[in-house]
Every structure is written in C-alpha cells, then in structure tokens.
Amino acid sequence: MRFFFKGLAIGAVLAATAATGVRAEEPRKGGTLVSVLNTNVRNLNSAVQSGIVTGYPGAQIFASPLRYDENWEPQPYLAESWEVSEDGLSVTLNLRKTAKFHDGQPITSEDVAFSVDVIKANHPFKSMFAPVESVKTPDAHTAVLKLSRPHPALMLAMSGQLMSIIPKHIYGEGEITNVKTHPRNNKNVVGSGPFKLVEFKNGEHVILERFDDFFMDGRPYLDRIVLRIITDPAARAIAYENGELHLGAFESLPRIINRLKKVDGLTVTDEGYGGIGPLDWLAMNTTKGPLADVRVRKAIAYAVDKNFIHKALMQGTAANSTTGIHPDSPFYAEQYDYALDLEKAAELLDEAGYPMNGDKRFNLTIDFGWPDVKPQVEYVKAALGKVGIEAEIRTSADFPTWARKMATMDFDLSWDTVFNWGDPVIGVHRTYDSSNIAKGVWSNTQGYSNARVDALASMAAVELNPEKRKVLYAEYQQIIADELPVYHINTLPYHTVYSDRVGNPPLGIWATSSPLDLVYLRE
Amino acid sequence: MVAFPGVFIVRVFYAAILLLAVVVLNFSMMHLAPGDVADTIAQANGGADAEILDRIRHDYGLDQPFPVQLGRYIGNIAQGDLGYSFFYNMPVTDLILQRLPATLLLVFTAQILALVAGVVLGVISAQKPNGVASLSVTFLALFGYSAPVFWTGILLLIAFSLHIQIFPVAGMRDVTVTGGFIVQVLDILRHLVLPMVTLASVFLALYSRLTRATMLEQLRTDYVRTAYAKGLPENTVVYRHALKNALSPVVTLAGLQFSAVMSGAVLVEAVFSWPGLGTLAFQSIIARDTPTILGILFCSALVVIIGNLVTDMALRIIDPRLRKSA
Questions:
Q1: Architecture of B93-325 per CATH?
Q2: Where is pLDDT greater, at B302 or A114?
Q3: A376-390, B55-69, B121-135: which is most confident
Q4: pLDDT for residue B242 is more than 60
Q5: Confidence band (pLDDT; 50, 70, 90) for A33?
Q6: Element (H, E) at B82
Q7: What is the CATH number of the domain that holds A140?
Q8: Minimum-distance CB partner of A52 among B37, B40, B46
C-alpha cells in the first residue's frame, strides 16, 4: 500500500515536470521571505498558545519531536527516532544529540519532560497529553513518555505546533501555570526551531532569522522570514498581486481566492489543511423543541441545498463535507449526503407531528458568530421557509456574545466552524462526547448524547492498530451522519497563496503551522 | 472674572471627573455585554478546554463580583497603572506607547494636509463661486465627504498599489529596506501617503466648504472693497486681508473635528494595517480586552485635550482680539 502511494507520488511529480518543463532544481540558499499573519498575534509561545496565528511563528521558533509528510506519515524531526512499546503504554523519543536552543544550550530530555508539563498545565487542548502520566529521562537524549492507557493520538500531537519544545532554563522558574503569561513569550524568545526571533512588534510584524546551529545540517535555506501583520483581506490580496507578499495562508474568502487564482505568477491551493481540518456546519440543539426529534433534523438537512451553498456562496472554493472528520484525514469515511428533497423534508415533518398550519409549521432561531457566514445563514432561513419552518436570524454583536449563547446552549440552529486539530481525539470527540456537553464554545454544544458514539470514541482513542481505528471511526461517523447533531456542509475553504519565486511551499498537513526549513526563494 | 489659576484648577477638576466617568461607564458597559476575554482567548486558540478557561477567568480576576473588579481597576488607575492586557500579555502602557507614535503621525499629518489643502481649495472656489474650478472643488469635497473612508482607501490602494505601483499596500515600514536614517524616513513617508490622503479626504471637504462660505462673506465686506479701491493687487487682498479674517471659524472647526479625525483613524488604520492605536482599539474591543480599551480611551482623551489646547493657541495667534481678552 505504501509502495503504491509512493509510486503515485513519483508519477505525479514526473507528470508535473513534463507538463511545466521545469527540472528538479537545487534549492537556493538565502533571501528574505515576506509572508503574512492575518490577525494580530497574542503570544509566540506555542507550548501555551494554540491557534493558526501563533502556529506560524511558533513552528519556526520551536521544534517538535516529529513532523508529518503530506501522506500523514510521521517523520523524524527533533527526535531522530522513536519507539512505541507493544502495550502502547510507553513512547520513547531518541533526541538528536547535536540539538541546541537558540542561546547555545543543548536540548535535553529534561526540556522535553518540562515542555510536556507546561503544555499539560496551560495548553487549551487537554486531550492531547491527558494520558501522559510522566516523562522519564534515563539519559540526556532519551525521553520516555509513560501513559496510563494507549494513546495513538499522541503521534499527531507530537508534531506541528502542538508539542513545542521550550527551554527549561528560561521558563523553569516559578509556577508552571504562569508560563502562559511569561514575559519571554513575546520578547527575547529562546527557541529550538530553525528560525530565531529578531523582533516582534505587536500589530506590525514578526521578524525571524536563520538559526545557524539548527539541528538539521544545511537548513533552513532562507536567511530571514518577515511575517507582516495585515488584517484586511482585500489589502492582503493586493499585496500578493503586486508582489509585496511571497506567501500567505488561511485565505478563506471565495471572492478573493477566485480572483487570485487568475493572477499570473501566483499559485492558490487548498492543499495542506488536512491536519488543521477546518469544517463548516449547521449546529442543531438536540435538547429542546422540534429539533429534539431526529426526523426534524433530517428534514432540515433535506431542505437545505448544500449544492447551492457550495456553488453560489462558496463559489466552488470549498469541498463537500459529510462528517465531523476532514475529508483529507485518513480516518474520513464518506457518509450519506442529504441531497435537496423538499417532499421528503415535508413528509418527515408531518411524521414528526408538525403539520403545515396555514403556511407555517413552527418557529426556530438561527445564530451566527462572525459576519463572513451571514450569507449562509440568510440562505438557510430562506430554504427552511420553503418547508414551513420560520427561522429568525439572531445577530450577535461580537464573538463572545455568540460564544456565550453556544456555551449555555441558548440556541436552536447556529452556523459553526470547528477544527479537527490532527487526530480525532483532539478536535473531533469534543463535539459529540456526552461527557463534554455545554463545556464552553466548541464543546458538545448540541447536547448530543449517544452511548454507542461515546463507546466508539473511547475504543478508537486507545486502539493502536490504524486499520481497526478506521473501522471504529467509520461506524462513529455513520451514526453521527444518521442522527445529525450537526449538519455537515463543507470544509472551510482555507487556501495557501504563493508566488512563483517560492520553492517547497508548506503544503503538508499542517500548512504554515509547520517548520519552513525547506522553503526557499528563487532569484 | 476668575483668576487664571482658579480657572485652571476648575478645568483639571472637571477633567478628572470626566475621566472617572469615562472609566466607570466603559468598564460597566464592557461588563454588561455577554461573554468575556476568556471566550476570545478560546477563539484565538481554536477552542479550549473548559477547565483551562475557568483558570484563565480566575487568574484575571474575572470570577470576582463586578464592584470588586471595578474598584481594583480604579485603584490601579489612581496609582498611574493602566494595568496588564489580558489578551496580549503585556503592560497596557507598553502596548500604547508602542502604538501611539504611528497614530500621532497619521492624525497630525492628515489634519494638516486637510486644513492646508481645504483652505487653499476653499479660497480658489470663493474667488469665482460659479466657475469651473469652484464646481470641481465642490464635487471633490462632497465626494470625499460622502464616500466611506475604508472604500476610498481600497480604491486608492487599487489605483496606486496595484495598477500604478508607487505606494506600498500596508504597514508603516518595509523591514527589508536597509539604510541610514534618511532612507528609513523616506520609507515611512512612502507608506504614509495613502493612509494620510484617505483620512484627509473626509476633513478636507469640511474645511474647504467652510472656507469657501466664510471667504464669500468676507469678500463682500467694506474693508475688502476699500483694499481694492486702494489699488492693492488681488492676491494681497484675498490672502492677507480676507483670508486672515475667514480663518478663525475654520481653525475652530478643525479643533472640534480633532476627535473625529482620531476616530476616523480607526478605520483608515484597519484598511492600511497602520500599526497605530486605532487598530489596537478595534482589536481590543473585539477581543474584550478591557484594560487595553480603557487605556486607549484614556490616552485618546488626553490627545484630544492637547489637540484642543493647540487649537486655542492657534486661534490666539490668528485673531488678536482673543489675545486681549486673555
């Protein structure tokens, strides 16, 4: 199977080479890559701060034990090799012996143990390292993670921005929970990754410079990376077009994506977002009113034409989504697609005991948390009107207002965007676990509860065999698609934009939340 | 008549009460809105475990009753401490001082440009009120005044950054530019042109319309007729006699508009990613970062007070009658 994939990849490369007539070239060393952050960054220390904005500088400044290739295979990074014991209860990392922090101190197993402690105490995703009981350090270059139960999700959680190794000699003093507000999260940052911090000006830029003693010889290729902070998408689009920006990621406005696709000298692609796995869906509060009946939820799915959303609103930029797992993930199993069927919707509503009364069956509210998705919400309102459901759109003044409504389950329907963050254990279970109902925004805000779904999630969380995990997740996705606590609409159309000058753009599973040590800039 | 120190003390007293009201009102309004900074921190993180969010609320004192939170904040302000930004993990004073110069540069240059260009255009259109020049000025002024600044900004970007590439798209500096002091200054000026023109376009309209109106009035007065009768050249009459008298309402308006220019800067800064207080204010409001918002309001009030003082002084220089009454 793996051979087959490799063969395919080589074939693709050959085809691409033949088509463009470009020979495989030697990466050029040097140069300053000018790239962009789409919002202001609050914290550069990715051990205590998650999110795609911190992920970009975070993955340059700090190294993680592993990295992933575009086929979801783990590759050595700070750990040159690793072993998982047969019972799955201990994971040994063999660190590179030459690895150094930016201040010249060696990176040791003590730092790995300390980083895991800091992440456990501060990082917003507790599920990543929850089963890690302790980290043993038999010698300076060996770290052994001891687990209370097998935890296959650990592999993805040790890559990208999720397990940044930070220096104990800098952050080690004082309370471990205070690392999240440590003054050196934003200045004089001492990291372990391919680039070191030169300057961070809040709201203006982050300047990174090549770290000459990086643990992988000859890398990184670039001398400098300038991350400008440009929050206006229209301004960013002009900057890509006139050549001021070489590379950008997480562009999600269909109009801008389609415009940039027509520009000579730019490539616009949705490759590289499988790890982050952003999904758009219509959340349904399953605990009250007509929506408590699965037939009503199905009727809504039949009444909302996903095709219209994909073609007219997303203008062809977004992929279809049928489950809570991103289509690029190896655990994705495509599910039944509720194609538009107004008659079926009407039948189901009649059956559920909501007959047409004049021209109306019942009222619902529909929420949204940010202005970009207003067209989607307006469309859903119109679509539901056709089957006699009168939806009232509730506008929230800002994100926290909406988040509070979701967290307290004070809603009927809401548009929502949720990320997978690698393994389903980290970003998928939270939406469907009955133990996670109403635990803040992006928890199980639908109040969904199904014992079989809970059981499948706990089994998949400890299953070490990837094929068996896939089977468990297939059933998991199938039940959810059938019971519809959320109606999956499409992937969020994140796109990476890069100029012809950029070689090896970051198109792996973590987009720009991965080290850019192989990226180079042509003359 | 009250003696000068007396007036001064009363003014300071009023200012202090006003600032206290600003702090209490804004703090209360921020508190009334559902949700808090922990929610926006969760958003920046792409989600967060409930336990972690509770800890954040506890660490920032957000789980305390409202009067305790307010009292603590006022206590800190009284000691000259603007507090610590929840969202950016740094002292608010540092954050603001990092951003203030950019905003001052933008606001003052835009205000000066609007004032100078507005007055010149106003005078030109007053000289021949029904001529082509006058109509063009009126058209330009009304266009600038009625177009939303962010739209004007994007249009200028498309014209001068994309089609004719003379000005950069965003930011205040090009960090890849290396060179001495002069090179750096020129680089900042190059970045300044579009945001400055965008912000000035709104106020230019106001000033040119007002100048035109007051000039028309002045040009009809007896002293102007006398000046013409003395045989003075037209330019001397218009600029040295009439304009001097027409200016004081314009300068008064400019002073009153100062706070409007500051708030206009919020939108312009957002379009051009100008790293000033406006962008910070906007982001802090969205992030529910109460200490930063209140700190910015405090500083803006200060800047507006200084702006008004400068206007006052300018009026005294222009109009000798005011000097006597002082």
A1: Orthogonal Bundle (1.10)
A2: A114
A3: A376-390
A4: yes
A5: very high
A6: none
A7: 3.40.190.10
A8: B46
Q: Taking CB atoms and an 8 Å cut-off, how many pairs form between chains A and B?
A: 179
User: Which positions 174-193 of B are in contact with A (Cβ < 8 Å)?
Assistant: 175-176
Q: Are residues A211 and A333 in the same domain?
A: no
Whether the ω angle into residue A220 lies within 30 degrees of 0, i.e. cis, is yes
- Binned at pLDDT 50, 70 and 90, residue B312 comes out as confident
H helix or E strand, kind and range, residue A495 = strand A495-499
What is the spatial distance between Cα A56 and Cα A53, in angstroms, rounded to a whole number?
6
- B267 contact A CB<8A: no
- State pLDDT tens for residues B167-221: 988 888 888 777 788 888 999 999 999 999 999 998 888 898 888 888 888 888 8
Residues β-bridged to residue A269: A496
Q: Is residue A427 domain-shared with residue A504, that is, in the same domain?
A: no
Residues A479 and A515 placed together within one structural domain of the fold: no
Mark whether A313 and A296 lie in a shared domain.
Answer: yes
Distance in Å from the first CA to the final CA of chain B: 11
Structural domain boundaries enclosing A103: 3-271+495-521
Is the Cβ of A418 closer than 8 Å to some Cβ of chain B? yes
What is the model's pLDDT at position B6? 64
pLDDT at A103 over 80: yes
Question: A109 with A217, same domain?
Answer: yes
Is residue A93 within 8 Å of residue A112, measured between CB atoms?
yes
Chain A (177-236) residues lying within 8 Å, Cβ to Cβ, of chain B: 177, 180-181, 183, 185-186, 201-205, 207, 226, 228-232, 234-236
Burial of A75 (0-12, 13-18, 19+ CB in 10 A): exposed
Does A38 share its domain with A154?
Answer: yes
Count of domains forming chain A: 2
| pLDDT at residue number B25 | 87
Q: Which residue type sits at B101? A: P
Q: Are A27 and A94 part of one and the same domain?
A: yes
Across the range B2-28, mean pLDDT stands at: 73
pLDDT band at B110 (very low <50, low <70, confident <90, very high): very high
The residue whose two tokens read 């100062």 is: B258
Distance CA A94, CA B141 (A): 70
For residue A20, the model assigns a pLDDT of: 47
Would you state the pLDDT for residue A112? 97
Distance (Å, rounded) from C-alpha A389 to C-alpha A356? 9
Q: Is B168 helix (H, G, I), strand (E, B) or coil?
A: coil
Q: Tell me where in chain B the CATH 1.10.3720.10 domain(s) lie.
A: 93-325
One domain for residues A145 and A185: yes
A127 and B280 in contact by Cβ < 8 A?
A: no
Gap between the Cα atoms of A468 and A451, Å rounded: 20
Within 10 A of A58 (CB to CB), how many other CB atoms are there? 29
Q: Is B30 on the interface with A (CB under 8 A)?
A: no
Average pLDDT over residues A82-91: 96
User: A460: part of which helix (H) or strand (E)?
Assistant: helix A451-462
- pLDDT score for A5: 40
